[in-house]
Every structure is written in structure tokens, then in C-alpha cells.
Amino acid sequence: MQPTLDDARKALQTYWGYSGFRPLQEEAIQRVLSGKDSLTVLPTGGGKSLCFQTPAVCLPGLAVVLSPLISLMKDQVDGLNACGIQAAFVNSTQSAEEKRLIAEQIRAGQIKLLYVAPERLLTARMLDFLEELSVSFFAIDEAHCISAWGHDFRPEYRGLKVLKERFPQAAVHAYTATASQSVREDIVRQLALKQPQILVGSFDRPNLTYRMIRATRRLEQVKEVIARHRGESGVVYCISRKEVERTAAELKQMGILALPYHAGLSDAQRQNHQDAFIKEQADVIVATVAFGMGIDKSNVRYVVHAGMPKSIEHYQQESGRAGRDSLESECVLIHSTADLATWKRIMESDSQTTDAGAVTSLEAMHALCVNPVCRHRAIVEYFGEQYQAENCGACDVCLGEVELLADAITVGQKILSCVLRQQERFGASHTAKVLAGSTEARIEQMGHHRLSTFGILADEGYDAIRVWIDQLVQQGFLDRNGEYQTLSVPEAGRRLLRRDGEPQLSVVAPTRKR
Ligand code: ADP
Ligand code: ZN
């Protein structure tokens, strides 16, 4: 007889001691129990693991879990064993004898979940071995690794296509936190899933308070956040390894228990630092994007981005490492337009990512940073969800920390008319310099010091004007075109010049004079 959702609920209580499923988990589990393919999209911390672990316990036979990282497998298997569930993994860290023992246990039906990496699963030996058994289903964790459009492409995932051919009777279930529609479609196609049920959970994390602040003195700004969370666990993300090292050293010097984490460290060092963080021997991990996948530390109270991440997907995942225990946590993103340029440079030098999609993702991230609209709303809307609340009560904009310009219409009009007077042939920094009344030679060479808009925003300063131009672009009052990113005034901008429309511009504290 087929196990039911009630059986799964009982297992949840018996083994994990949890009282009930989260809404989407029920549907995902129901689908696994029914034996038909599925793709489940839940944000980091959303509870994907239980979606395949509970049915694995209820269904007869062996569930095979594909997982990209050895450390991740070990943590999950240890966790399951601690709950009294028979689970095992096979990987390169084990001796032949250990592997033989596990194979024996599996043949004897003593194992419910087997964790394995794709490259190992795809060996002829492993496939033959599994074919002799009764596999209840395959669970593909971090399934976005199969898509070159995702942010963590692993070519070895591509081979998983053979599962539907070799095991036609076993369902395949894919799990990911990556919500983009194209990655979703790619997963379904690459795995050859049969009429899969696609479940997408909410990407809102109501217990996270978001703040997005413009970089003035980054290190000081990072320290301020840490000071608000003395003795609590936090993660500081930096764009480059060099910045990671420098920031970690600075924090250490101040007596903060901070450790670096990036791909330039040895495996052993990385493991040590991660362990120290999990065991609370270190308060802060300063890391590049290399840190994260599979880190299950529930009481991270804050995540600071010392630089802008390259996509909202990355931001959602990285900031999502805070507050997995559902308690209030803070996410602070420190950004500047320079970060945008840094990423473009990195993308250009890295041929794998020089596609238009990467640049679009990057620009969406920048828009999120500079637009003074509710952060919770902006994030979930990016993932295609509706957002109900007028005021989330948990972001800098809704908390009134982002001061808005009272006369945004007039300021917007000044900027737009400057763009028109320059014949729509110049970029953002040149325009900002003209409006600020810069004495740079190039401005005189172009004769722009004679424009009526020259210096009309001199009191506001270059930096503020530069931010407003970004905000006007993001809000559709200005367009940016072509290789030189020249500014032009679209229809919405022309309406604004007739006082029809209202941009949201933020008050920008002056940092440096130009
Ligand atoms: P994901 O893999 O989606 O990032 P996890 O599966 O690691 O998320 O789950 C995140 C946390 O939420 C874990 O600590 C897990 O035990 C907890 N959790 C998941 N589902 C439930 C539930 N139904 N009830 C209580 N806690 C849950
Ligand atoms: Zn808000």
C-alpha cells in the first residue's frame, strides 16, 4: 500500500520531533509519495531536505540523493543518523572496505537514503549496482548545478540525464533555491523530467531586516554592523579574496573573532574555519561567494555584504544564511557604482560568464540597491511573486531610514533637461559633472560649461547627482544605451518634464567633492 501524507507526518514527528510541515513541503512530499517527477524551488533555509528525506523513510526501497559537495553529504548523513534514520554516503574519502560494508548494508535493505555525488553515481559500476536494487526515487539536490544559466554550473550534473533512461520506474525529483524561470526550464529539460509538478515556494524571508547603504568608508560601515551584534554569529561577504584577507585582518586587530574563507585557502584551512564558525569559536566569517553552499548554521544573526553581489539570486542566497532559525536577523548591503564596474570587469575577463544574462542580472542587483523602494517587495517581485504589505516594517525604506527628496520632481527635471541639452550623447558621470559645475577640461572642450544646466545642482554635489541618475534610470525616466551607456530621455522622462510623474530620489550624504 502506498504511504500517505499522514504516514509522512508521523515520520516527521517520530524521527525529527517536528510538529508539522511547512505549506509547500506537504505538496512536495505528496508528489514524491505518488511516484511522479517534480521540481521544488524553495529559498535557502526553506526546508528542501525534508521534502525528500521524509518520503524516503516512508517508501519501500532506497532513495538516492545526488549532492554536489562531500562536506554537505557528511553533514546531512550525520544529521539523519542522529535522528535514528539509516543513511549513508559513498565518496572518495572512504576506504574500499568502508564502501564494501555500505554496499552490503544497502543490499540487505538496511539503508533508506544513499548520498552520492553525480560523478560517482554515473560510473558504470554504481549504475549497475543500483539497477539490481529497488530504488524508490532519485533526489537531485542543488539541481541548478545542471544549468549553465545558473550561478553554479557543474558539468558533471549534465550526465544525470541517464537516470530517466536507466531507471524508468523510479521518479526523479529536483530541488533548488534558484528561482529564475530559465534555470527552472533548463533543469526540467536537462533531467528529462516527465510532466513534473513544479512547486515554487515564497522567497520572502520576513524575519530578515534589509538595509542597503551606499559605501562611504566600507570598513567602518562593516564594523558598525558588527558592533550592533557583539558576540553573535555573522558573515561578511567581500567581492575579492584580497578584500577578504584585508577585512579579516582588520577585524582581528580590533579583537573581533573573525576568520577568512575563500577558494585560495587550502581545503583543510577552509574546513577548519568553517568548523570554528559552526562551533562558535569564531564569531565572524569573512568570505567570498565560495562560502555558503550547505552551511547549515541556524543562528547567524547578520550578513553584511561589503560589496554588491553579482545578482539578486546570489544576494537572496547569501543574505538568506541569516536567521534560518526564523528569529530576527539583519542583512546589510554596502554598495557603490564602482562595484558595478568591478563586476563588469570580472565578467569580461571570465569568458564563461560574458553573456547578456549575467549583465542583466548584475543590473537588476544594482537597481535593487539604488531604488528607494521596499526591499522585501523588490526581492520577491524579482522572483515573480506578488507582495501584499504596503509597509514591511523590516527594511531601511519602510523603517524610514532612507530619506527621500522632497522636491524630487524639480531635481529630476534639472537632470533630464541637462541630458537633452547635451543632445543625449553623454553618459552618467559626464552629465553629473556638468550639473555639479565641474571645472574638468573635457567639459570646457565640449562647451558644456556654457549650457544653462551647468552647475545648477552644484550645491548637491557630484555623488548625489550620480546616485539620482541611477535612480532615474532604474525608474524609467532615463534610458542608458549602447557601448558608451549614453543617457537619453524616454517618453516617461518627457512626461516628467511636464511635471507628469514622480520619481523617488533619496537624500544622499556628501562624501567627496569633485
Ligand atoms: P534548505 O535545504 O531548503 O536550505 P533545510 O532543509 O536545511 O533548508 O532546512 C532549514 C532548516 O529548517 C533546518 O534547520 C530544518 O531542520 C528546519 N525545518 C525544515 N522543515 C521544518 C519543519 N517542517 N518544521 C520545523 N523545522 C523545519
Ligand atoms: Zn519594506
UniProtKB/TrEMBL annotation:
<dbReference type="GO" id="GO:0006310">
    <property type="term" value="P:DNA recombination"/>
</dbReference>
<keyword id="KW-0238">DNA-binding</keyword>
<dbReference type="GO" id="GO:0043138">
    <property type="term" value="F:3'-5' DNA helicase activity"/>
</dbReference>
<feature type="domain" description="Helicase ATP-binding">
    <location>
        <begin position="29"/>
        <end position="197"/>
    </location>
</feature>
<dbReference type="GO" id="GO:0009378">
    <property type="term" value="F:four-way junction helicase activity"/>
</dbReference>
<dbReference type="GO" id="GO:0043590">
    <property type="term" value="C:bacterial nucleoid"/>
</dbReference>
<dbReference type="InterPro" id="IPR002121">
    <property type="entry name" value="HRDC_dom"/>
</dbReference>
<comment type="similarity">
    <text>Belongs to the helicase family. RecQ subfamily.</text>
</comment>
<dbReference type="GO" id="GO:0046872">
    <property type="term" value="F:metal ion binding"/>
</dbReference>
<keyword id="KW-0479">Metal-binding</keyword>
<dbReference type="Pfam" id="PF09382">
    <property type="entry name" value="RQC"/>
</dbReference>
<keyword id="KW-0378">Hydrolase</keyword>
<dbReference type="InterPro" id="IPR001650">
    <property type="entry name" value="Helicase_C-like"/>
</dbReference>
<keyword id="KW-0067">ATP-binding</keyword>
<keyword id="KW-0234">DNA repair</keyword>
<keyword id="KW-0347">Helicase</keyword>
<keyword id="KW-0547">Nucleotide-binding</keyword>
<dbReference type="InterPro" id="IPR032284">
    <property type="entry name" value="RecQ_Zn-bd"/>
</dbReference>
<dbReference type="InterPro" id="IPR011545">
    <property type="entry name" value="DEAD/DEAH_box_helicase_dom"/>
</dbReference>
<dbReference type="InterPro" id="IPR010997">
    <property type="entry name" value="HRDC-like_sf"/>
</dbReference>
<dbReference type="Pfam" id="PF00271">
    <property type="entry name" value="Helicase_C"/>
</dbReference>
<dbReference type="GO" id="GO:0009432">
    <property type="term" value="P:SOS response"/>
</dbReference>
<dbReference type="GO" id="GO:0016787">
    <property type="term" value="F:hydrolase activity"/>
</dbReference>
<dbReference type="Pfam" id="PF16124">
    <property type="entry name" value="RecQ_Zn_bind"/>
</dbReference>
<dbReference type="Pfam" id="PF00270">
    <property type="entry name" value="DEAD"/>
</dbReference>
<dbReference type="GO" id="GO:0003677">
    <property type="term" value="F:DNA binding"/>
</dbReference>
<dbReference type="GO" id="GO:0005524">
    <property type="term" value="F:ATP binding"/>
</dbReference>
<dbReference type="GO" id="GO:0030894">
    <property type="term" value="C:replisome"/>
</dbReference>
<dbReference type="InterPro" id="IPR006293">
    <property type="entry name" value="DNA_helicase_ATP-dep_RecQ_bac"/>
</dbReference>
<keyword id="KW-0862">Zinc</keyword>
<feature type="domain" description="Helicase C-terminal">
    <location>
        <begin position="218"/>
        <end position="366"/>
    </location>
</feature>
<dbReference type="InterPro" id="IPR027417">
    <property type="entry name" value="P-loop_NTPase"/>
</dbReference>
<dbReference type="InterPro" id="IPR044876">
    <property type="entry name" value="HRDC_dom_sf"/>
</dbReference>
<protein>
    <recommendedName>
        <fullName>DNA helicase RecQ</fullName>
        <ecNumber>5.6.2.4</ecNumber>
    </recommendedName>
</protein>
<dbReference type="InterPro" id="IPR014001">
    <property type="entry name" value="Helicase_ATP-bd"/>
</dbReference>
<dbReference type="GO" id="GO:0006281">
    <property type="term" value="P:DNA repair"/>
</dbReference>
<dbReference type="InterPro" id="IPR004589">
    <property type="entry name" value="DNA_helicase_ATP-dep_RecQ"/>
</dbReference>
<keyword id="KW-0413">Isomerase</keyword>
<dbReference type="Pfam" id="PF00570">
    <property type="entry name" value="HRDC"/>
</dbReference>
<keyword id="KW-0233">DNA recombination</keyword>
<dbReference type="GO" id="GO:0005737">
    <property type="term" value="C:cytoplasm"/>
</dbReference>
<dbReference type="InterPro" id="IPR036388">
    <property type="entry name" value="WH-like_DNA-bd_sf"/>
</dbReference>
